[in-house]
């Protein structure tokens, strides 16, 4: 006699089969994870050994360079630090240095916890130095709570540094919009796609957001995100550093005192 299974029996069989498949998939994922983890651990251990052997104190002690290209005298610099910066910046641009407008931006939390990152200078005049960013990222959170910053330009080919310290304020919405319109299409989309400093699951997650935005806007104008704009650093201190032989570097500092810039030479 051939028994015909009931609908209930079929349902139970399908449920059991699905459970077995799910269990198999879960087990496969665990195996993949453990395999990748094991490989990553072995790779890390290998790299750790390599780094220790490569970066010894003796090796680092021998890494040095003498600076002898230029000199800097406090009697020869311009009385206005913005003019002096303009002169050095133009020389960096004319020397065709890679990204001469790149600067290290240092911020700190109110309790003094610092952080540094590279940003790009996008404008300067006697009001200050401007860069643009997401207003919800870490540097913006730092600046909202502690509106002071320092930036450093390092033009190694010219053996020069410029340090600037000052207070920080946001640029106007109009100024941010005018700059935003000059950005390439993809850069305007990425400003919308990236929730800066937040954790994301993968690179593909970010690329999918970009793809979605491309379809959403098409050929339409991309507006300025409400969480994106500029900051202006209003300098209180400039320091111009010129590398010299035997580490006897030239350092000239400008300090604003009552609306007047005081010029001083510092010991290296």
Run of helices and strands: HHHEEEEHEEHHHEEE
Q: Report the radius of gyration as a whole number of Å.
A: 28 Å
Number of helices: 7
Instruction: State the oligomer.
Output: single chain
Give the DSSP E fraction (strand runs of 2 or more residues): 25-35%
Helix coverage percent of residues?
25-40%
User: What's the CATH C level of the domain at 81-174 and 223-266?
Assistant: Mainly Beta
Could you report the average pLDDT, rounded to the nearest whole number? 87
In terms of structural class, how would the helical and strand content be classed?
alpha+beta
Low-pLDDT sequence parts: 1-9
Give a short account of the largest sheet. 9 strands, antiparallel
Labels describing this entry:
Pnp Oxidase, Chain A, 268 residues, globular, 27% strand, alpha+beta, 9-stranded antiparallel β-sheet
């Amino acid at each position: 006699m051939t028994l015909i299974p009931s609908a209930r029996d079929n349902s139970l069989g399908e449920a059991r089969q699905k459970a077995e498949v799910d269990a198999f998939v879960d087990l496969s994922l665990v195996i993949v994870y453990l395999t990748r983890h094991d490989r990553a651990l072995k790779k890390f251990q290998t790299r750790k050994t390599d780094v220790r052997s490569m970066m010894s104190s003796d090796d680092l002690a021998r890494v040095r360079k003498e600076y002898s290209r230029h000199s800097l005298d406090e009697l020869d610099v311009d009385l206005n630090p913005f003019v002096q910066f303009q002169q050095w910046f133009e020389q960096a641009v004319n020397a065709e240095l890679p990204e001469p407008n790149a600067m290290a931006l240092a911020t700190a939390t109110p309790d003094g916890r610092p952080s540094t990152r590279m940003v790009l200078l996008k404008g300067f005049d006697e009001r200050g130095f401007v860069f643009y960013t997401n207003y919800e990222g870490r540097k913006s959170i730092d600046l909202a709570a502690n509106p002071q910053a320092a930036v450093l330009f390092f033009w190694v080919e010219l053996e020069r540094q410029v340090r600037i310290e000052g207070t920080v304020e946001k640029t106007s919405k109009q100024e941010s919009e005018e700059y935003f319109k000059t950005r390439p299409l993809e850069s305007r989309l990425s400003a919308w796609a990236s929730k800066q400093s937040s954790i994301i699951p993968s690179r593909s997650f970010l690329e999918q957001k970009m793809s979605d935005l491309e379809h959403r806007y098409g050929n339409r104008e991309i507006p300025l995100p409400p969480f994106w704009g500029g900051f202006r650093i209003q300098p209180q201190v400039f320091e111009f550093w010129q590398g010299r032989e035997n580490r006897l570097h030239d350092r000239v500092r400008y300090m604003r005192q009552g609306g007047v810039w005081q010029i001083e030479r510092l010991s290296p």
